[in-house]
Design goal:
There is one protein chain. The protein has eleven helices and 14 strands. With 303 residues, it is α/β, with parallel strands linked by helices. It has a six-stranded mixed beta sheet with strand order 6-7-8-3-9-10, with helices on both faces. A four-stranded antiparallel beta sheet has the order 2-1-4-5, with helices on one face. α3 (92-102) crosses α4 (109-119) and α4 runs antiparallel to α5 (135-147). The radius of gyration is 24 Å and the shape is elongated.
């Protein structure tokens, strides 16, 4: 495997920013790294990229321990931090030339710079100073520098922040393509984006690992808690709707529209239909809905 984390813990005073987190990320895989603000995502990424040390546990990149040989680990990693620090007074091409020299790319520099400028859509921006660029294009420059030295592992913290819808599609496609030959770990607050790109998902909450699986498998694990969407012709109150058998919870989204969560016993749609029949209500719409990644995330990080 390319990245292996075991029992990773980071303590600041009395606060556990990370509490014995373990997971693996493999070559040819895009790993979506999720968690609420303050969950420990950026802390994990900073440890993997050798910016800060862990309090305990181990982290290895391409079988190299981040504590024992941090310089070699940095050679293996391309990193785009959330803050995306750039030299604003440099031109785009000039900045990438500087990064190429930092990585000692030598004769490969020119071809790699051209390749990164083209793949990240910076061709028309290369002779502008970074200060002149929009946030989306600054983000592209950050991606270009992360990939410039052709690292085995890419760690991207909010890589699509500030991109417009068209740019978003292009960068998503680029990350998917990179994930075929590299190990990619990326975090995002846009859960649909994670679902579209990631082969596997790791979720942490308050420093603890709460999920490590594919989106499909996470949905299957919660399938006994099916959501049923219903719309009635008549207005009904919550007390009356609460009489439906097999409910775990219910929520009124609009005047006549409801979301019902099953307790996992039987088909809740049948119960809603029978309820409408008994109460002489007209049922306009009835639909079974699988748990979305957003709902899974809410379930796992609620407490």
């Amino acid at each position: 495997m390319s990245v292996k984390v075991e029992g990773l813990t980071k303590i600041y005073g009395t606060q556990h920013a990370l509490d014995s987190v373990s997971f693996e990320a493999h070559k040819g895989q895009v790993l979506g790294f999720l968690g609420p603000n303050g969950a420990g995502k950026s802390t994990t990424m900073k440890i993997l990229t050798c910016f800060i040390p862990q309090s305990s546990g181990t982290a290895k990149v391409c079988d190299i321990d981040v504590t024992e040989n941090p310089l070699e680990v940095r050679r293996k990693i391309g990193y785009l931090p959330e803050s995306n620090p750039l030299y604003y007074d440099m031109y785009v091409g000039e900045y990438l030339e500087f990064v190429a020299r930092v990585h000692n790319l030598g004769e490969k520099s020119k071809s790699r710079i051209e390749e990164m400028i083209e793949s990240t859509g910076l061709t028309n921006e290369r002779y502008k100073t970074i200060r002149q660029l929009s946030k989306g294009y600054k983000q592209r420059v950050g991606l270009a520098q992360a990939m410039l030295h052709d690292p085995e592992v890419l760690i991207l913290d909010e890589p699509t922040s500030g991109l417009d819808p068209n740019q978003l599609i292009e960068i998503r496609s680029l990350i998917k393509q990179l994930g075929k030959n590299k190990t990619v770990i990326f975090s995002s607050h846009i859960l649909q984006e994670v679902q579209a790109i990631a082969d596997r998902i790791v979720i942490i909450n308050k420093g603890k690992l709460v999920a490590d699986d594919t989106a499909e498998s996470l949905q299957n694990k919660l399938q006994n808690q099916v959501i049923v969407k219903a719309e009635f012709k008549q207005n009904i109150d919550k007390a009356l709707a609460g009489q439906i058998l097999g409910l775990k919870s219910l929520e009124q989204s609009k005047d006549r529209k409801w979301s019902f969560v099953s307790d996992g016993k039987g088909d809740l749609r049948e119960n809603v239909f029978e309820f409408a029949k008994q109460k002489n209500l007209t049922l306009l719409h009835l639909e079974k809905e699988a748990y979305s990644l957003e709902e899974i995330f809410k379930q796992l990080t609620r407490k």
